[in-house]
Amino acid sequence: MQLTHIPFAKLSVSTLNMRHARKAPDISDILPSIRARGILQPLLVRPSSGGYEIVAGRRRYFAAKAVKKEKGRIAPLPCAVMDDDDDAAAIEASLIENAARLDPDAMTQYETFTRLVGEGRSVADIAATFGLTETQVKQRLALGDLLPQIRCLYRDEQIDASTLRYLTLATKQQQQDWLTLFEDEGSHAPRGHQLKQWLFGGESIPVSAALFPLEDYPGEIVSDLFGDERFFADTEAFWAKQNEAVAAKRDAYLANGWRAVEIMEPGRHFSSWEYEKTPKKKGGKVIIAVSHRGEVEAHEGYLTRKEAKRAEQAARAEASGEEPEPEKAARPEVTQAMQNYIDLHRHAAARAALAERPDVAHRLMLAHLIAGSGLWSVKPERQQARGEAIAASLASSPAQIAFATKRADMLALLGLNEDRAYVAGGSGDGYALASVFARLLALSEDEIARVTAYVMAETLEAGTSIVEAVGNHLAVDMSGAWTPDDTFFDLIRDREIVNALVAEVAGRNAANANVAAKTKLQKQIIRDCLAGTNGRQKVENWLPRWLAFPAKPYTKRGGFASTDAWGRVRRLFKAD
After folding, report:
1. What is the value of pTM for the model shown?
2. Where are the domains of the chain?
3. Longest dimension (CA), the chain
4. Which ranges of 184-272 would DSSP assign to H, the alpha helix?
5. Which residue has the higher pLDDT, 411 or 195?
């Protein structure tokens, strides 16, 4: 390398200078010194056609240019002349010299490193030269995966480093979609954290949230180029695996002797002030909280304040030898509305079957005459529905429609007004009673038996043990009398029950995979299985345990009236 002074007119900025393409630099800090003393530190140059090009020292050159303009002339500038056949060395010199003054931005490093690779430098060579790790060099070189338009936006300072960072997570199509928004004056292109949410369709899920081994995840994992953040690209696949892991965690706690494990709905915060710390041996349970980002936290040994208060009262009573206060009944398995829905559908099926068995109906009618009932006035069962939705569901029931057809036949047989809502339960008018009696006298024994069976079915009280007795004795097949409808699904509120229904129609693996999912999603899985949609295998003639004869609960909590009603009378009936 040779030191010499070169006239200003023979100097120009080299295209290899890392800041060549930028606007004129800010020289306000060095201009006073150069006015007073001239340029003391040599510029780094190399020969070019007709002169010399500046590899490093661009700001000193522009300061000299300003002094020349002010004074009309300037002395030759001190320069260190490089060999003219080593572009890589010139690029390195430019970057090193500028890095000592101001760290170059990521895009400048990308462009410079790319040129060095083109000149034959390896990643290891570049890293060693500039005191970086090979990973840092690779990260900068990987900016080449961004569309050129995006790199230009960053170079022109139209987008910031945060936006550039998240765009490195985007596919080429997502980059193009983002550019379309950016170029449309009527649209808003998301930036920074909003861009991250836009790319992932909502909350992004970091790999650190996974309870399961990452090799079990079937989707893609994406990461940015400037940090250690990695995210699940397929959130549905993540939640399927994460829910399976949460279910396994719950089962492990139960196997380890915990009384109960409560899995909170995703996004619901565990508020410790709502609970009291209670050890396992005193009945404490585990609360598992799942955030929207997939993080899982298990809070061991807690009871709600009400539960803790009851436990404390029971302990004091036991210590003093007193009778503890009776515990409130556990939360019923089904709501009153759902129980009403179940009672009416099962009642409709039971009495439709009863109407086909005159021998049974006749004997049942005699039992009513002897023992009486809540309806034997005589009054028909009016099937009071808790809301229009339940009423509409019942009206469309195959069993209800079949029974309405029988009613029309009975009204015609007895010569009664076809607009009557019921056959039984008249007003008690003497002439009407005599008229019906006279009509019955004219009927055959077979017709009398049919009327008897129908009237008994019409006066069968819903939601009672006798409906259970009839349905079980006649082995009523509910699958032909009921079909799943929106009202049934709308009335289900309990998360544990919904998950049990998922297990029944889709299998235990599907239930575990969605154990922490919202009830709306789990209900949709059940619907998909029944309809054979969204890739689910169709399940034919599914019947919930609640509606079958005999009815069965899904939990051990109790509070299911159908099983209670049958349990009170079951021993009176011999098994077939």
Report:
1. 0.52
2. 2-152, 153-200, 203-328, 336-480
3. 138
4. 192-200, 235-255
5. 411
